[in-house]
Amino acid sequence: MGDDVNVRYSDKDLAEFKALIQEKIEKAKRDLELIKSAYMNDLNNGTDDTSPTFKAFEEGSETMSKEANSQLAIRQEKFIRDLKNALIRIENKTYGVCRVTGKLIAKERLKLVPHATLSIEAKNMQQ
């Protein structure tokens, strides 16, 4: 028995990731609201131009197509779900462990993709 059974991030690290993820969930929820309200605005014939914040999403076109909009909402909801699952992994102290190699996922990667369950190594193997 090696001690690599216990490969995991320290509680201090986990607490850091938890804060990061909770922040991302809040932001993702706000983004989702923006997407949904823009979608509602579209339905109200789009004359209501009171959401300049939404412009940040889409520089190019004035209003996004309804399809693109609902795709965006679906992606955003999945993202929120993935982040919430990451919080569960933090509670179980399994967060940040690659589900293929069992090694720790690099901190840099987790900061960029906090809901990652694969190390870069495992991701490359899948290609």
UniProtKB/TrEMBL annotation:
Top-level taxon in the UniProt lineage: Bacteria
Keywords: Metal-binding, Zinc, Zinc-finger
Signal peptide: none
Coiled coil: none
Protein name: TraR/DksA family transcriptional regulator
Pfam families: zf-dskA_traR (PF01258)
Zinc finger annotations (dksA C4-type) as residue ranges: 98-122
Zinc finger DksA/TraR C4-type domain boundaries: 94-123
Keyword Transferase part of the UniProt annotation: no
Originating species: Bizionia sediminis
InterPro entries: DnaK_N, Znf_DskA_TraR
